[in-house]
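Summary for the steering committee. The consortium agreed at its last meeting that each partner would contribute one worked example illustrating the joint modelling workflow. Our contribution is presented below. We chose a case with several input lines so that the handling of multiple components could be demonstrated. No manual editing was applied between input and output; the record is shown as generated.
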Amino acid sequence: MADEGVANHYQVLEELGRGSFGVVYKGIDKTTGETVAIKHIDLESSEDDIQEIQQEISVLSTCASNYVTKYKASFLRGHKLWIVMEFLGGGSCLDLLKSGIFNEVQIAIICRELLFGLEYLHSEGKIHRDIKAANVLLSETGKVKLADFGVAAQLTYMKSQRNTFVGTPFWMAPEVIQQAGYDFKADIWSLGITAIELALGEPPHANLHPMKVLFHIPKNSPPRLEGKFSKEFKDFVAQCLVKDPDSRPTAKELLKHRFIRSAGKVEALQELIQRKRMTDARVDHVKHPVYYQETLHNISPKDEADEWVFDTVKSIVPRRGTVRSRKPSSGFAVEDAMRKLDLKDGPLQPNTPGTVRKSTVRRQPSSASRRRSRQNSNGSPRPSLGPKRPLQPDMSFGNSGSTMRLFRRVPSDSSNSGGLASSALEFANENQPPPAYHSPVEPNSKEAMLGRRLYKKALEPCLDELHAQTAASSKREALAKLSDAFALLDAVDPEGAYHLLRNLVSTVSQDTKLNNTFLPQQAAPSSSKTTPVAVTADGNPQGGGTVLVKSRPSTATTATTTTTLAGTPPTPISPSKLVFSQQNPHLMSHHRRRGSLLPQPVSPSSSPEREHFRGDRDRDRENREREREREREKMAAAAAAALEAAKFPGGPAVPGMEHCKALSDLLYTRWTDGLRARWGVVPR
Amino acid sequence: MSFFFGRARARTNTTDLAKQAKDHVTKLDGPQGGAKAEELAKVLAQMKQVLQGTHEAEPNTEQIYQLVTGMIEEDLLYLLAVNLYRLPFESRKDTQVIFSYMFRFRPPTGPQKPEPFALAYVVERRPQVLVELCKGYDHKESATPAGTVLREVLKNEAAAAIILYDDGEEQGSSVRGVGGINPDRPQSGRGVFWNFFDWIDKSSFEVSADAFTTFRELITKHKELVPRYLAVNFDLFFDRYNSVLVQSNSYVTKRQSIKLLGEILLDRANYNIMTAYVDRGEHLKICMNLLRDDRKMVQYEGFHVFKVFVANPHKSVPVQKILIMNRDKLLQFLSHFLEDRTEDEQFIDEREFLIKQIRSLPSAPVAPPQR
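What follows is the complete predicted structure of the assembly.
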């Protein structure tokens, strides 16, 4: 490793920020005393990005321009890659925008410097592809430099074109979105958008969803700079934003534009940096610098018993007890606990197993009973259950969120004793909770009767149908969970189901667009008393999706909501496919959250609860069940909302969740890539 | 008239360029090396412009033709490749562009040749150019430009063969052009191709990463050439591959090469290579140790090689022995292996499949059925 010693040449100081790929620190080059920025990229946490990072480095390392951030070195340290760059103390234009928009004089200077940078890059056969305020850095003295070459392209031949769909939607040129082949001119468009961003504080269409913007840009006439700006500035922006790339001027030509020629010196930009510092000080933003700390990975010495045995002479006695899993894993812990658990003292064991089971086949068809029957009959489901089969695999009742797979994935035909034990556990595990939820709640009010009817006639068949139509397993899982939640609700509180739908309908009717879409011929029913369930469905802060819906035009909303309910997009080209995008961070985090929050009736940790149950089971249990049901319902509602939100991953960050936005944006870009690969053209 | 005049002037210029460049390159070592380097830089920039054209003017095919033939006559490609690392920063990039255009240029008239003629010339008559380009990895200055040119050129099967079969003055080496290659003679392991292992393992991150990318291209692109090469040089190749790359100290090299190993084995064109690979108990041992690496992504990539051993329906006796000996450990280990990959359905399914396979192994090795 030629790299090992190099890291010692640098003294790493405080954290400057966190970028798309890793943490950036301020540092000092010990050999020269120069201040540098050092990016630490944890390669272990990235799946396949090593080559992308290499690409970025190779583009940067072949740049030598005063208008491009200077690359100094890169080297490996363990599984961290350090990239040493020139330190630019002024921060990014996006940061500077936070303390106010820029004036025309400042914008002219920045645009000129950027044009110099682009002229250089383009003459080198490089396309930046992600020009925006966030990627424009200022030095302390006001020098303007292009940064972040994460998606930059190097063309081998001047005339070649690119088709890759990369960049950030708001700043993307129409030809990039259309993927008809684009070249350097794409950067010029982005520059025009950046100029607007600097003047107004945000790019055009910033209020729209990025997905929507992708359709908007190629379809409509280019954005214009409106308002009290000089004619020159407006014209400059208009020149950059010519839709036909062939008629769009080059960087060189734009340098001759009047707006640019009359621009002043870069030192004038120091004002912006000063202003930012003032604002920061005024906000009383006591910054506690985060200092770099060397992380030492102590690798615990491996256990002898853990090592593989390759020596033929040594005879191996299987020692179950001594073979330890390398990492203490939650799954293992739970399994262990399960082993200790005597099935008989499970309080949730049904009082009258036989009958409950029978009666539950209808009301709670989803998981346990059917899966069990399949297991018992050696893999052949009873014909009557055939149509519902798609719902089988994923019903775990949420009773051990993180270890769900462990149980689900244990094969039923296991031959050794360990396997049998675990399948027995699975059996018990699955059996216990359902009857508990099934404390016979007979519909005794009109609402409850309706609720039950609603479930039987509408919800259950709908969900089954959708599930059957859905192919991708992640989608199926999501649907199965929802179906599960409804089944439980019906079993325990049919009245709740009634109120849920009632409130849903009434809230939908209050939004004109939703109303038109879903209830075209219905008058808005008067809303009844609000159950906690409905409140959650509506005001759940985790939902996030509701917020999105409001700001969305009707076409998109239609797609969203139908798909949320329908699971399968009506047409393959519908953008609503995104709802269940596997990579979707909203969805994923939601699963996790759900798993961890759900009550775990059988888990040993709930033993105090069990004691309680034994005491005064009757009344207390019912309340408890109800509470649980509500929580479950909340989850279901949140699931629906999250599914909806999931559809628009690039959307505005939910307050308090801004830190997820970068990730979400990244995934979003990947998704759009995939979308295009699959269907070629996206409808506009 | 002026049009005519312009062309005449250009002609003298372009033929001169190659000569001038040669002059300067050969004197880089001399007393005026610095000055020569500067002049060379100017000449190279001019050459680049001729080949590339400018934003205003399209490149002139006739000029290019003259330049290319001039460069071949002066053997400039070889000289530039040898001296690449000594050129100034901008000249290295210019040289890269010059090479790329040269190797791509097809004369507009004349007989239809399957290859651009500069490349054909190099492959048939001057293979040392390609060898020297590879040696660009000896220096961090020349690694990126040389690598960029190489990756472009290696798309050509003959060019790839030159590098694979370079073996000094040995019989059947590519040293006398692509026609002299004898693919059935095992390599000595001293040819330029074998240097890639050290370039990848021992260089700094930038050089190593670039060399690896080129190596990957070389090994995965050509579906007839490479399987044959690997079959003849099986032991030499995989011994080096496993000892140098898979067990490299560099995290990136290790992880990338395990991944590439998986890709090589699972490539349909390499079916015979794959079956030979997974027959060896030694290979399985290396692979099983990767599963226990302390870095998750290494474990993960290792898994994708391991699965080939287990999924193989014709497991050799040594492989069966190892698996059976470790059956309980493996079952225990796999049931908790990379548990946090809960979103990766394919991985989970494959892991499940492996568990089943291992569980159903016989209690003692059985000779594999005849294929």
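Strands of chain A lie at 10-18, 22-29, 35-42, 71-77, 80-86, 91-92, 126-127, 136-138, 144-146, 153-154. Residues 158 and 350 of chain A are 75 Å apart (CA to CA).
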